[in-house]
Amino acid sequence: MYAILDIETTGGKYNEEGITEIAVYKFDGHKVVDQFISLVNPEIPIQPFVVGLTGINNDMLRQAPKFYEVAKRIVEITNGAILVAHNAKFDYRILCTEFGRLGFDYERQSLCTVELSKKLIPGLPSYSLGKLVRSLGIPLSDRHRANGDAQATVKLFKMLLAKDSEKEILKSSVRNAPKLQMDTKLIRLLEELPSITGVYYLHNSEGDIIYIGKSKNIKKRVNQHFTNENRKSIEIQKEVASISYEATGNELNALLKENEEIKRNKPKFNKSLSRNIFSYALYQSKDDDGYINLKIGKADRRKKSVTTFTNLQQAKALVSNLVEEYNLCQKYTGIHTGNGACFNYSIKKCNGACVKKESPLEYNERVKQALHKYSYEKQNMLVIDRGRELDEKSALLVEEGQFKGIGYFNLNYQLNNMEIIKSIITPMKNDRDAQHIIQSYLRKNNRLKVIMLDPAQ
């Protein structure tokens, strides 16, 4: 017996959605033997884009039964049946979430018509319900309404049953209860996580850290680990037993914390992050005429660089900005590779260093100004960013070009000398990866408050 269903929801944050409409058809493999169709009052507002998609609005649901009033009927009509849905993982998760709010563990076997269609009807351009049934000549009315989508899924499932004459694919595609128990475990772990910026730690049953990550929304990012179906994600889903996290207030601190924690703990599923996080660098050198040349090259830890980049496109974009902002010569920045004057000289955006009309002294002064902006070598500065609470700010300290650490302070706290600043800073390791993270972040977030410090204070 099968319970073919479709659910419409309010939309919104993961596991905070509510059901707005449900349609269930009990199907014995040949014909529909029972059905249940109802609007449901989710007791929370519907997201505007969902209203536009489904046509279901808040006014329509005011007099509709609440989920607890229809829960018994849903249990009855699905009892002893395999749940069938188009993207069954979603519908099953929503049902488990709603029943979980009532303190009831809802467990059923499930079968996904998306997965089944890909196996039995391979090679189609799309397996979304609307496009799939249209390509198969199955009528579909009331798209994105539970009853219309459920009726189309019944007809689709009938066709799939006929195509799978030996029923081998069908049997192998059924998701059994043990898988669903794992899903319930993951859902409960997710429920305890906040939607904040920070670093998260996935632990196994022994308490060992198996993965470290960072995100601007911890709950959303961990949800991706739990719903992805690549090999690493599936292994993480099997092993994870608990999750801890640390709020950082902003992405820069999260990036730095993640970098340091991965190197310290070496979690088994973070192996890919052991390689360099930057692949290109900007180098400077003086030619025989005394002009400073800037050149993009592959990152080499043995060479001293001005700044580093994740990819070549970032490097080229920065050099182009420097040329534009400081009237630098295209010849001495690697953009113009031929002999003679660069193109910018012909349109009066280069002062003529390429044809020796500007002296090395004058030209190099502008280059140094440009480099000072994008490299914190020998600088003393404090980077102020968002804190973990509304009444808090974060501070990142660079002293003599060396990253010293991060800290947090109350908005009423006065950072007026180096001793006070150092008292709030938690020391962190200064390495090439940390330098790259800070420089990249400052380039992308040029509105951050940066306080230049006098070390003598």
Any descriptors?
457 residues; alpha+beta; 5-stranded mixed beta sheet; 5-stranded antiparallel beta sheet; 39% helix
Q: What can you see in these coordinates?
A:
The chain has 457 residues and is α+β, with helices and mostly antiparallel strands. 39% of the residues lie in helices and 21% in strands. It has helices spanning 48-54, 58-61, 67-78, 88-101, 113-120, 129-135, 146-163, 168-173, 177-191, 218-227, 231-239, 251-265, 312-326, 343-346, 360-374, 418-424, 432-444, and strands at 2-9, 19-27, 32-39, 82-85, 110-112, 198-203, 209-215, 242-247, 280-286, 292-298, 307-309, 381-386, 392-399, 402-410, 425-427, 449-452. The protein has a 5-stranded mixed beta sheet, sandwiched between helices. A hairpin with a 5-residue loop joins strand 12 and strand 13 (392-399). Helix 5 (113-120) packs parallel to helix 7 (146-163). The radius of gyration is 30 Å and the shape is elongated. Residues 177-181 have low confidence and may be disordered.
Proportion in β-strands: 15-25%
What assembly state would you assign to the polypeptide chains in this entry?
Answer: single chain
In total, how many beta strands? 16
Shape: elongated
How many helices? 17
Radius of gyration (CA) equals 30 Å
- Biggest sheet descriptor: 5 strands, mixed
Query: Segments where pLDDT lies below 50 for 5+ residues?
Result: 177-181
Helix-strand makeup class: alpha+beta
Q: Span from first to last CA?
A: 79 Å
Neighbour order of strands in the largest sheet: 3-2-1-4-5
Estimate the helix proportion, in percent: 25-40%
Q: Mean pLDDT across all residues, rounded? A: 88
